[in-house]
Structure formats: C-alpha cells, structure tokens
Amino acid sequence: MLTEQQDLQNLEWVISQKYCMMLSVNLSCNSYRVVEPAHGQASLIAQAGTLDALFLSARQVTHPEDRATFEKYFSREALLRAFSGGRHEVSLEYRQKSRDGQYHWMRTKVVFLHRERGEACAMMFLRSIDERKQAELSRAQKLSRALADTEEARRQKAEYDEIVTTIVNHYESAYLVMPEKDLCTEIRKAENCRFFRSDVPYGTLVRQYTRKFVQPAFQEPFQRGLLRPIGADFELTYQKTDESWMTVQCMALRAKNEWILCFSDATKQMEGVQARQDAMEYFDSLVSDAVLSYTINVSRDLLATELEIDHNGVNQKLLPELGLEAPCSFNEMIRRRSEKVSPEFQKSYLAFFRTDYFLKIFNSGVYEAGIEYDVRDDTGAQVYMRIRNTVLLKRQVGTGDVLAVLIFKDITEAYAKEYQQKQVLQRALEEADRANHAKTEFLSNMSHDIRTPMNAIIGMTEIARQSTGDIAKVSECLEKIEHASKHLLCLINDVLEMSRIESGRMRLAPVPFSLAQACHELMDIVRPQMQKRNQTLRAAAIDVEHEAVIGDMLRLNQVLVNLLGNAVKYTPERGEIGFTVREERGRTPEDAQYVFTVSDNGIGMSESFLQYAFQPFTREENETVNQIEGTGLGLAITKNIIEKMGGTIVCDSAPGEGSTFTVRLPLRLQPHGQSELPLSAAQPRCALVLEVDQQAAQPLCRMLQQLGFATDTQNAPHCDESAYDLVLRGDADSRTGCACLQLRRKACGNLSEREITERVQQPIFFSDLCRALAGIPAQAPTALPQLNYAGKTVLLAEDNALNTEIATALLRRIGLQVEHAGNGQQAVQMFAGAEEGHYAAVFMDIMMPVMNGYTAAKAIRELRRDDAFVPIIAMTANAFADDREKALHYGMNAHIAKPINVRTLYRTIEHFLGSGQKQDVGML
Question: How many whole angstroms separate alpha carbon 213 and alpha carbon 547?
Fold first, then answer.
C-alpha cells in the first residue's frame, strides 16, 4: 500500500534524470525538504530537517582535504551572503565517504530562486561524478605522459588529439584556449557559437560575445569565468539574448597551461527546472488556504490519507464525522458526504465525485478539475458554506495506477463578497441601461415637446400676418404665441438646470425673507392655473412660530412651484390640491425644520415607477401622462435642489388616488424676526372658526388663542354666528384660496360702528391674522407701472440685432432715449467720450465680441469721473444664480435674465431712476 508521502511525491515533483537527488531549500527558515530522493541507493539524508544539521552531517563525511573548501561554500550563512550578493548559483566538486567506507567524488549545485514573499529559497542538486573524475584523471595522466615524453612526441600528439576529441564529442562546440598567446583554436563548432573565430584575440572575442549574446544578468560571471587565470575548472549556465540557455565549461590542461572551452545547449534542462519551480508555486497556491487535503488511488477506489491543514490553530478532519477512517473507500466517503450537500447541488456533486469520472477525464488528457457547491455547516443548522474542491490527477510510476490529490477550500466569505460585487455591478449595469434608455426616450420626447410650441409660434405668427386688419384675431394670436414661448422657455430652462446640477455648478444664494410672503407669492403663481381647471385649493400653515428666515428663496420657490405645478397638471378638472407648511424643532436654536406638503387627488403613480420618479428624463408611460406637456426633469431638479439645501423629499402615491410629496428643509432663523404686529388694547374675546377641514381649523384656533381669543369650531349650516365677536370662514372661497374674517362691533370698541370684513389669503400665518385684526390690508400684486422718463438717456450694449430692437422698443415705451453699442469695448468708449451725467443707466449684455460685459462694466467703474458708478444693469441670457453673483462681482447693480420680463425690467428701472433709488438691488 502506498504511503501518503509516496503519493504526494509522485504527484508534486517531476523527477530529474541528471541529478541523483534534489532538495528544496528555504534559507530564510533554515529548512530543507527532499523533493527527489536518491535513485538506486539508500540516502544518508533525512527527508526533511534544518540546513544547519544537514551541512554538519555532510562535513563529517567529507574528505579531510576538501572539508575546508566545503565549509567555505556550504553553510547557511555563506549561501545567504551569496544570495544577497546577487549570485545565481553556487557549485562545488568534492570527495565524500559513502556507506561502503570509500570516498567518492560528488558535485553539489545550489540554484537560487527569487520568491515574491521575500524569502530566500533555492534548489539543491547532488550528483555523483566519480566516473567522470576517474576518466578525467586518466586522460590527464595520459596527456601528461604524452607531453612529457619528447621521444614519443608524435605519438603523444595523436593520443592528445584523440583524448580531446573524446571530450568534446559530448558538447555542441569546443575550443582549445591558449591564454599565454591570447588565442583560441576551434575544435568543434555549432551554429549557435559561430561568433568564436581563431583570427581574433581570445580576450576580445570573449568581451564581444558577452556584450552581444549574453543577458545582462549573466555578463559579469560569464566574462570573469572565461578570462580567469588557469586554475580550477569553471562551469556556468547562462541565458542568451534570444532567451535560450547555454552551459559553458572550462576544463584546464594544467601541464600545457591551456584549457578546453566547451558549450552545450541547456534550454530543455532549464525549462524543466522552471517547470518544476512553477509546479511548486502552483501547488503552494492551491493549498495556501485549504482546510483539508486527501490522497486517493482512483484506480482502486482507495482514499489513502486525510491531511488536515492547520489554519489559525484550528484542525478538524472530515472522515471521523462520517464514521470513516483512512484508508477507506473514496466512493463511500462521497456518498455519506452528499447528505450534507445542498439539494440544488447534490446531482452535480454525485456526478463529479466518481472514480470512473476521474478516470474518464484523465484518459482524455485532463489532469485538473474543480467544482463548487454548498454544504451545511458542522452545527447541523440550515446554514450553508460554499466549498471549492480541486482535483489533481497523475499516473503512478511503476504500477500505472491513476492517483489524485483532492483539496478542500472554504470560500464562503469570498463567495459572499463576490456575489455582492456582482449584484452591485448588475444594479449599476441595469441603472446605466435604464439611464441610457431614459435619455433616448427623453430626446424623443424633447423633440416632440420643443416642436409643439415652436409649431404654435410659427403657425400663430403666420395667422397674425394674414390677419393684420383683424385686431382681435392678432391679439388672440399674440396671446397664444406668448403662451407657447413661455412653455418653450420652461423646457429649455429645465434642460439647462439639469445640466448644471449634473456638472456640480449649481450654487445657493441665501437671503433673509418672509416665509409667509414667499408662500403667498407661490399661491399667486399657481392659482390662475387652478382656476382654469376649476380645481380646489386647500392651504394651511401649522405651528409656524418663526416666519422670518434665511435661505435661498428663489430655489425654495422653484421647488414648490415644480411640485404644485405637477399637482395641477396631473389632477383632472374639479380636483383638489393641498398645500401645508409646518414648523418643527431644528437641530440648533438658530435654525428650524420646515415641512412642506403638496398633495392632490389626481392620476397618481404606480409603485414600480416610484423608485425611478426622481431620476432625470423619466416619465411614467400611460395615455394620460403622454398627453401632458413635460420633460421628465422637474422632479429630478427638485430633488437635487432639496438635497443641496440639506433637505429631503419623499413621495406617497397610488394610481387613481393621487400623490403626496413631503419636503423637509432646514432654514436659519433671522436673529430678530417677529411676525406679530401690535394690536389695539380693545380686542374681541370670542371667535368662531368655520372650516370644512377640521384638521386645518386647529392651527387657526391656536393662533387666535395666542391673540387672547376663546375659540370654537362649528360646521353646522345654521349655527348662531351672532353669538361670536369674530367669525373666520376658512373655506369662504376655496377656488381663490382666500378666507373671510368678520369683526363685529360689539366687541370692538375702538372700531367704527359697523361690521368689518377682511379677506385673508391662505395659507394663513400668524402675521396675516395680526394684519387683518389691526386693519392693515395684505399687499396686493403690483400692476405694470406707468412710467415716463422723457429726457433721460441710457446706453444699451448688445451685439444681437433682434435683441437690440426688442430692448430699444421696451425702453423707448417709457420715454427713454437709447444709444446703442455693438460690443463692450465700444460701450466703454462711448461712455468715456460722453459728458458726465449724460447716461442715466447702462444696460449691458454679457456675451459680446471684442470685449464681454463683465470686462466692460469693470472698465467703466475704473474711469476717473463722477458718474463712474452709474447704474449698470446686466441684461443677458446667462440666467443662473452664479451668473447673477458674477455680475455683481464685476460691479453691476442688477441682473435681468433674457427673455426679458417686462414687469421686472420696468420695476428695476423705477428702482434706480425713480425717487428714493438705491445703489444696489442685488438679484432683481
């Protein structure tokens, strides 16, 4: 029966035919192990042990005359020095006593290996050279006698030639070297050594050959060996520049001060050494993290040994758990083991682990195979480990049996990580595919959405041109052109906004503002859309104690307009829209958390679409949505703005039931912001709140209670309102979003003898109630101002002819004289050449040839004249927040985005050119 050691040796190593013994040496660890044992004789060397012990025992049997030389070269310290010095090998010929008590010539060669983990490793080869030494000695003696006997010189020369021929016939090429004459004579020549020529000095030949044909790593030892003084024999295996390997040997003929130089091809030999080295490294990698290893005689269905591999002090064999002990039947072990294998892997497991299957693949030329499967852990719980088995197959020398090494690895953790990585990559791939698909659909939708208003603009323009005599028809066409133009502008703005967000160029501009005023302006924007669709608006402010806040009001307005605009678009006529704002405690006393809720009872969204609702270029595909204008960018822009402001947004929706968006935003509180307004001393004491939505009535009651009212809520159609001093009708006009507040004279001693009725816009904030009770009306939207600036001149810097015509017409409409400059440089020259005070203001485009608007504004500010700080108003298509900031940085006073909003233009002009003007308005 084969032992475990014999099985592993047959499988691990390729037997060298040249050396009688081969050892694997680890100089760093002071260890060795026999890779290939001696052939045909018992070895004196143990199978494994320490190098120090090995060299000590070897010195004891070395011939006394050779012992000093042996100790010089073969000790662990000497070999480490040679390794560190960059040597590739160390070899020595010496005499050693054998078991028969006689000394025999031995040759020991150590070849250093460089391993990645930094350990100094080597292969040691031992060979008996007794026969060669005896033959060499005999030939040398014959040659010596032949040369010494002058009377038989001719016979000795013939004998010498015969001896030399006998020696060199074993090599591909050979040369007779005469150092004293610096010559070499060709004895035998091969194609790969044609470089040596007898007409060139020997030293020159060696140096030329070294530079041209020897790899740099071997050049120094090669040249030093071939140019050495006559002495000991020399042998070196080196690599040529064509990647082949050669062995060069110098055999000294001491009697004549000459030597024979021989070359032989060592490529196959070195390939064998490399193959053995690669096999060692591969086997090491296989067992590096294995937990169990088995040696198996496949031909005889025999599991010979079970080798446990110690990892972190844990050893556990498998056979005892299965009720088996080595040696045993391999097939029986597999049958018992299969009971623990996961059901989904049992079929493949039993099909793979069969001796007949191993024999089949081995006979087909496959010598390595593997399988992965899940197996229950040792606790018996339904927890599975992922196991990888690798099988190495080889035929046994002598018996012809097929042998195998079976290696077990627990790869549960690595498999889990790999699975997670695959899942992440799969999700990323799906996300990328979905994004690409969405962008493709977006381009298709954009083509349709852009062409729709463009078609309206072009069509209505043509109809207006044909209807010049019909003022009503022209007016109708212009109104439709204006509507289509605004829609087209929204499409373009959405695309540009998304582009800036994705490129990371979106910036916030925090300013102090009133939350109540912002919400009322928001209602003013969306209310006309609701009224056209006969939709009901219900708005409420809940527990808002701080109305004076600091934040990016424009971005907040953009977010809420997007959400309310979607609610209006996706809610059918006579539907209901809800909007609430609620204050919660902030993280610090200096800020507060505001919760904005936008709800509707519209078409809603499916659960599958909700997970993609906030991604760009995404719209749910159904007949209703496809008929509604949109780019699929609104929610993506909204989410990015909210996250940039440090907030969150969530959506709850269902098809046919509507949608509810909840936005949480942190806003800083103004240091001295108070919403209350002073009230007269005589105040009503009893209030009735009539509100259909009782949930909305509660915050109104709390606000009234803060003002000293006792409150009551009723919803009956015939309640006695005369019993109350104040009646607040929260749902007085749900279509306009206004509540009705009635003050009765009996409780208002300081008011006139009549009943006062105030209308309060929803959502009702505390400041709104204070204003209503104090008799201060809410600020109404300003109408288009009626201005007249006859006699004043402005400078317009604009390079586009159509934009110049539009701006000039709008400015002249209010009496301004307009002088035009085609670029920034011309604008600076015209301003510098005019009398001081000639220009009341400068309207500056940004993107102009020769000199842009930023540079031109800076140049005007640097002029040494009293009117250098004239109002400069940017009027440009660079319409984002950072564009406004950049305009102010370069000395401009205000920023108006194109297309020009007439109300904004005239309001800005009134601010700077009217009475009480200021130097800076910021972001108008």
Answer: 89
Q: What are phi and psi of 576, to 5 degrees?
A: -125, 135
β-bridge partners, 669: 549
pTM for the predicted model, two decimal places: 0.43
Cα 461 to chain center, whole Å? Answer: 51
The amino acid that residue 382 corresponds to is Q
Give yes or no for a contact between 619 and 612, defined as CB atoms under 8 angstroms apart. no
Q: How many residues are present in the chain?
A: 924
Over its C-alpha atoms, the chain yields an Rg (Å, rounded) of 50
Q: Compute, in degrees rounded to 10, the torsion defined by CA atoms 789, 793, 799, 805.
A: 40
| Tokens coding 561 | 């307009």
Model pLDDT, residue 117: 66
Residues 6+ apart with CB under 8 A from 607: 654
Burial of 195 (0-12, 13-18, 19+ CB in 10 A): exposed
Measured between alpha carbons, how far apart are the two ends of the chain, in Å?
98
CB atoms within 10 A of CB 875: 24
Q: Which amino acid is located at 594 in the chain? A: Y
For residue 469, give every residue at least 6 positions away whose Cβ sits within 8 Å of its Cβ, in sequence order, or none: none
Burial (0-12, 13-18, 19+ Cβ within 10 Å), 700: buried
Long-range contacts of 878-883 (CB under 8 A, 24+ apart): 878/846, 878/847, 879/493, 880/496, 880/497, 880/500, 880/505, 880/506, 881/506, 881/507, 881/508, 881/509, 881/552, 881/554, 881/555, 881/923, 882/505, 882/507, 883/846
Helical H segments across 308-400, by residue range:
330-337, 343-352, 355-363
The pLDDT score that the predictor gives to residue 346 is 85
- Per-residue CA distances from 238 to 217, 223, 265 (Å): 9, 11, 10
In contact, 25 and 55? CB cutoff 8 Å: no
| Beta partners for residue 375, in sequence order | 341, 385
> What CA dihedral angle connects 843, 846, 847 and 853, to 10 degrees?
90
The residue type found at 662 is T
Identity of residue 88? H
Mutual orientation of helices 76-84 and 51-60 as an angle, nearest 10°?
Answer: 120
36 sits in the region (left: phi over 0; alpha: psi -120 to 50; else beta) called: beta
d(CA 627, CA 633) in angstroms, rounded, equals 16
The predicted structure's pLDDT at residue 637 = 80
CA distance 73 to 58: 12
Residue 618 DSSP one-character state: -
In order, the DSSP letters of 837-851 are T-EEEEEE-SS-SSS
- CA dist., res. 400 & res. 363, Å (int): 12
Chunk the chain into consecutive blocks of 10 residues (it has 924) and report each block's average pLDDT, rounded to whole numbers.
38 45 86 73 72 88 90 88 85 86 87 72 84 77 63 57 60 77 74 60 86 88 78 78 83 69 78 57 54 81 73 59 85 86 86 89 86 73 73 81 82 77 82 71 59 69 81 82 71 63 65 88 80 84 89 84 86 89 89 93 83 69 52 76 90 89 92 55 65 71 80 66 73 57 50 56 81 61 67 92 86 92 94 93 92 93 90 82 80 86 85 57 36
What is the pLDDT at residue 378? 58
Residues paired with residue 93 on neighbouring β-strands, in sequence order: 107
Look at residue 792 in the predicted model and tell me its pLDDT.
92
Closest CA to 579 of 538, 634, 544: 538
* One-character DSSP codes across 15-26: PPSS-SEEEEEE
Q: Are 283 and 14 in contact (CB under 8 A)?
A: no
Closest alpha carbon to 30 in 160, 158, 119, 132? 119
What value, to the nearest 5°, has the Cα angle with vertex 447 and ends 445 and 452?
A: 95
